[in-house]
Amino acid sequence: MDFKALYTTTAGRVSRKTWWTGVIILAVVGIVLTLLLGAIGLGPSASSAGWGSLLVTLLLLYPSYCLSLKRRQDRGNNGLDLKILLGLSLLSSVLQTLGVGITASDIGNGVMVPVPAGWFSILLLAIAAYAIYMLVQLGFLRGTIGSNAYGADPVANPATA
Q: Is residue 102 within a helix (H) or strand (E), and if so which, with residue range?
């Protein structure tokens, strides 16, 4: 498996197995980055946690896009739905980081938790529903059998997966 091409190019197709492997690797990288940022004060418990989260999102956005676009192309799709999901996810991350649509609520003993406004909760719920749709498309449905406009079938030609 050519990891450089997997995460840096948008040409071609990948199988479900390759996509899942790539997603697991990105998840591990995201966790490691979050822990490293936590060590320098941008972690989940810091007041600046939103900036650390946004930084991790930005760092993993393009590799995630490349990997998932190739999976959409395996299903004969140009990936517009993927671009919409990634754009909405980035927008919600930026809004959360800037504190737009979020208020702090005291749950007792001076412990403050972020609470999304009603409109922001609806936006997050819509993004979550759309993400579930994309998870089904990317992770569970078989790609086009045989060649399509984006290349050869990665299952029939495992060397190109």
A: strand 102-106
Summarize pLDDT for 53-75 with one digit per residue, the tens: 899 999 999 999 999 999 999 99
At 93-127, the pLDDT tens digits run 999 889 899 888 898 998 888 899 999 999 999 99
DSSP secondary structure string, 135-157?
HHHHHTS---SS-BTTBS-TTTS
CA gap 130, 133 in Å, rounded:
5
DSSP single-letter state for residue 48: T
Q: Please state, in angstroms and rounded to a whole number, the distance separating the CA atoms of residues 115 and 113.
A: 6
**CA 56/CA 13 separation, integer angstroms:** 26
Q: HEC string of 108-129?
A: CCCCEEEEECHHHHHHHHHHHH
Per the CB < 8 A criterion, the answer to whether 50 and 107 are in contact is: no
Backbone region of residue 77 per phi and psi (left: phi > 0; alpha: psi in -120 to 50; beta: other values): beta
- Return the number of other C-beta atoms located less than 10 Å from residue 37's C-beta: 20
Q: Is the dihedral of CA 43, 50, 32, 127 positive or negative?
A: positive
How far is C-alpha 42 from the geometric centre of its chain's CA atoms?
20
